[in-house]
Design goal:
Layout (H helix, E strand, L loop, with lengths): L1 H44 L3 H6 L12 H8 L11 H31 L5 H10 L9 H11 L5 H24 L4 H9 L4 H9 L4 H16 L3 H6 L7 H10 L7 H32 L5
Length: 296
């Protein structure tokens, strides 16, 4: 009897091991599949043009050089302007930081209101706000251009900040609202009985437990705003274009010899900030995203 139990347990453990090996093998294959383009970009960016011409796509560089990175940063031609992506990169930084902070903070307050301070018509208002998540970018180009012109911030960094804050509020409000409904209403009611008001409850009770969702929203907004191209093309001027527009111009510039190593270096420079954000805070992303999935 015992031997039969041992056989059964042994066969079950063998099946578990086989399944686990199969899963890890699939994950490794998937990781390799998705990392190959990144690998090609990196090795191409450190090759010479002669190395690119004579080698193949995935061959390692015979001569390691960072000249393409230096050129992409400060002397690559983006159309008729040959100053690299440096200025555009800092334009993106100036746009992303305030846009992310403002949209995140307003979204936190909105989520707090929609989940804990419901008012007459709040659900209807939230529904209309939620519709904003599904409106295509192209639909708002013309009315937003008119509004930016009326306000007087068209073709400026401030205009891009305004656009991304407005468009991002629907998403940030939704994230915070779904997270805050998991906080027991009894805590808010007890705080109200003790005499705490709107902002005191938000500051003392809500914010201290909001770190996971703040990480989610910051990663989401940073990625969306930094990688945006359409708004950058439509609403920026020559002095306020983000790095994504510069990258497009470098790749499409056809004067002289096509320098694929410079193109790859510029693409990596444009992608490094969001990559760093995911590496540093990525493990908190799913934790915060699923934290609001229990209720509401």
């Amino acid at each position: 009897m015992r031997s039969r139990e041992h056989v059964i347990l042994g066969s079950q453990s063998s099946i578990v091991i086989i399944v686990r090996i199969f899963i890890y093998a699939l994950l490794i294959i998937a990781a390799i599949y998705f990392l190959i383009p990144f690998f090609v970009m990196v090795i191409t960016s450190v090759k010479t043009l002669n190395d690119i011409r004579t080698g193949n796509l995935i061959s390692l560089p015979r001569e390691f050089t960072l000249k393409a990175w230096y050129k992409a940063w400060d002397s690559a031609c983006t159309g008729i302007n040959c100053e690299g992506v440096k200025g555009y990169f800092f334009n993106s930084v100036q746009m992303v930081i305030p846009a992310v902070l403002i949209s995140t903070l307003i979204g936190a307050v909105n989520g707090y209101v929609f989940s804990k301070w419901r008012f007459k018509g709040s659900e209807t208002f939230f529904t209309f706000l939620l519709i904003g998540c599904f409106i295509p970018f192209q639909v708002i180009l013309l009315p937003m251009s008119l509004m930016l012109g009326w306000i007087g911030i068209a073709q400026s960094i401030y205009g891009l900040i305004f656009v991304h804050v407005v468009y991002g509020l629907a998403f940030t409000s939704l994230f915070f609202r779904n997270y805050y409904v998991t906080i027991p209403d009894e805590i808010i009611k007890a705080a109200k009985i003790d005499g705490s008001g709107f902002f005191r409850i938000f500051w003392k009770i809500i914010l201290p437990v909001s770190a996971p969702i703040f990480v989610v929203v910051i990663i989401w907004q940073t990625t969306q705003i930094w990688n945006d191209f359409l708004f950058g093309v439509a609403f920026s001027g020559s002095q306020s274009q983000p790095v994504t527009v510069a990258l497009n111009n470098i790749v499409n510039t056809s004067t002289g010899v096509k320098e694929y190593n410079v193109d790859m270096a510029a693409a990596l420079i444009a992608g490094i900030p969001t990559l760093i954000v995911y590496i540093v805070a990525g493990k908190y992303f799913l934790r915060g995203l699923t934290a609001g999935a229990i209720k509401g």
